[in-house]
Amino acid sequence: MTSAAALPQLDQRGTPPGGRRPAGTIARGLVALTKPRIIELLLVTTVPTMLLAQHGLPSLRLVLVTLVGGTLAAGSANTINCYIDRDIDAVMKRTSRRPLVVNHGQGTIKPWEALAWGVVLGAGATLLLGLMANWLAASLADAAILFYIFVYTLLLKRRSPANIVIGGAAGCFPVLVGWAAVTGTVALPAVVLFAVIFLWTPPHFWALAMKFRKDYAAANVPMLPVVATPVAVVRKILWYSYAMVAATLALVPYAGWIYGVFAAALGTWFLVEAHGLDARVRATSETQSPEIQGPEIRSPEIQSAAPMRLFHLSIAYLTLLFAAVAVTALLPWGRW
């Protein structure tokens, strides 16, 4: 049996003292900083928007340029967000294994490397979109990066429970970028799609934050579930859900009747689930003793299963809604 003394000693970054980090480890860490799963959802909204703007298929070259540029821009914003938030990421269990966190053998990327990587990605997005699509699309991508970093991450995230409401606007820019890439302008249908994602973001994120309330509380981040009761949080989820569905229906004059049928059906599905969460939260809250009512409520049902059901459903909802936009754009007889 190998003794513990015979094993190589590792430093805080999980590498032998004086040793070099493997190139593959660095590459994986840099990619992880971009938060690829979030980028996937952003791109799901971009292509259907381009199809609607074109009323058909844009050139494959333009689609690829826009997707790659959007990926670089989102990766830039997410990487710099990780650089700024590395202190609170270390406190939260959900984020404690991110590449910048020196914890549990992680910390595979140095802070200066992350910052440089984020800047390079942003510059790449600007040049690619500007030179191969148009400079309006590039400017909108830059606006999304700056908004996410300065408005959400630096100004609001640690100071206001409205952080995700206002800051979530950064995630709405891909539809404007996609529309601008095709048309060179920003028209009303793109603004409506922006509003749909803007109103979708709070119910989506607050459902997740209900499960990870203790994480955000430990990091002193005032997400709404930290500073409000579960009942109050779900009430706001309902408000935004109804506003979101109304916004989806506002697109019907531009997207057509097939889209309208899908939007109404999907909206009904989402609202039923949101009301189901409301009913479960209220029922659980009523069974709690008065001394643990409020933000300190510890119901396992409220903090995990029920909110996460709505969180996962919200992803499916947005994907299917934008798929309906794409279908309408490709089927001329589905429009008015």
What sequence of helices (H) and strands (E) makes up the elements? HHHHHHHHHHHHHHH
Distance between the termini: 75 Å
Helix content: over 70%
Beta-strand share of residues? under 5%
CATH-defined fold name of the largest domain: Tetracycline Repressor, domain 2
* Main β-sheet description: none
What is the total domain count? Answer: 2
Q: Could you tell me the mean pLDDT?
A: 88
Q: Uncertain segments of ≥5 residues (pLDDT<50)?
A: 1-18, 289-301
Topology of this structure?
Layout: H1 23-33, H2 36-54, H3 60-84, H4 86-91, H5 111-132, H6 135-156, H7 163-167, H8 173-183, H9 188-211, H10 213-218, H11 224-227, H12 230-249, H13 252-255, H14 257-287, H15 300-330
